[in-house]
């Protein structure tokens, strides 16, 4: 099975990796920062350590990210 060229749609991700809760955030922690990371964005771009400080801090902020980045598309 070949992996389609990016960016992945949410439907493609859910079909290919059905055990991953794509619509729920992943808690990411470093020694200095913690935040809620978007699994879809990680699948598409990865996540650098320096980006952790910019992650949503609350579920409301994550939902805002989801609405802006993934529901409009
Ligand atoms: Zn995202």
Q: Indicate the proportion of strand residues.
A: 5-15%
Bound molecules: zinc ion
- Report the strand count: 2
The computed structural class is alpha+beta
Sequence stretches where pLDDT stays below 50 over 5 or more residues = none
Strand count, sense and barrel status of the largest sheet are:
2 strands, antiparallel
Mean pLDDT value: 90
Radius of gyration, taken over Cα atoms and rounded to an integer in Å: 13 Å
Count the DSSP helices.
Answer: 3
Structure summarized in a few sentences:
The chain has 73 residues and is an alpha+beta fold. It has helices at 10-16, 39-45, 59-71; strands spanning 26-29, 34-37.
């Amino acid at each position: 099975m070949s992996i389609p060229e990016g960016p992945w749609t949410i439907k493609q991700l859910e079909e290919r990796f059905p055990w991953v809760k794509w619509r729920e955030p992943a808690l990411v922690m470093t020694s200095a920062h913690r935040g809620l990371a978007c699994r879809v964005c990680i699948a598409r771009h990865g996540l650098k350590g320096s980006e952790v400080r910019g992650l949503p801090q609350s579920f409301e902020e994550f939902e805002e990210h989801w609405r802006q980045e993934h529901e409009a598309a």
